[in-house]
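seq as requested:
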Amino acid sequence: MRIIRDYQFVETQDRGASAAIGNFDGVHLGHQAVIDLARTVAPGAPLGVLTFEPHPREYFAPDAPPFRLMNAKARAHRLEKLGVERLYQINFNAALACLSPEDFARTVIADGLGLSHVIVGADFRFGKDRAGQAEDLVAFGDQMGFGATIAPLVAETGVTVSSTAIRQALADGRPRDAAQMLGHWHRIEGTVVGGEQKGRELGFPTANISIEGLHAPASGVYAVLVDVLDGPNTGSYHGAASLGLHPMFGRDVPNLESFLFDFSGDLYGATLSVGLVEYLRPEQRFDGLDALIAQMDADCARARQILASL
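struct tokens:
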């Protein structure tokens, strides 16, 4: 997959794509439906996705609480798995934010990227002050020489699939409900960093990754699927993970600590993708380390049982 970051400097081979447009936070079933339409409406054209970095919501409200389901790197990995050939990850800045809907259609879609067809969800908004609607894009396409298709919203078990609904499911400790809307396990991806070695001292060495900038699921212990994406230990593993502040040790910055079952090796510096499968219990304090270790043994036994049934 090729990643293009500037609509003003686009090589000939990257023009002419059929592209889904949106933020694609989580790459959920609704997003996948839009991408599938982009794949089918223009046979022979490269399959593309047009998205923005930073997320426009981050740009306009930089001090708001973190809300993203995945970072840009994780989103790119998921889109590549779906067969996307061109990822137009355009820098969202003041110049782009000031474009009217018509100027966005002409400057970015038609002249800049040279897209042959675009697909958007029915709730798509674009241009300054989100003034443009999906129907406007169809009209601009007729004028400017690109096709435009509006994809209907997708519902799952009676609930419209959205990043907002997925965030709520995760905040409530319902990762399986989130996975139903995502079409895959919710994954937190990051580089393994050094910790305080508390897990190793207790007999449960963990791989620690930051959740900075991401929406925080319910704090507590999870059964997880862990993919090591690079390095000598590349592969897929079962495990248990603790997400949050870890009250026994008085930390004030939340992170994700994953214990990989039946694993021995060094993961420092490796990229991990941790899929949340089931919420086992909330964070809690224990009366001493022996009680904590006993609970961790029980957590791991339960996680093994859950993951063996997948």
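The chain has two domains: 2-156, 185-308.
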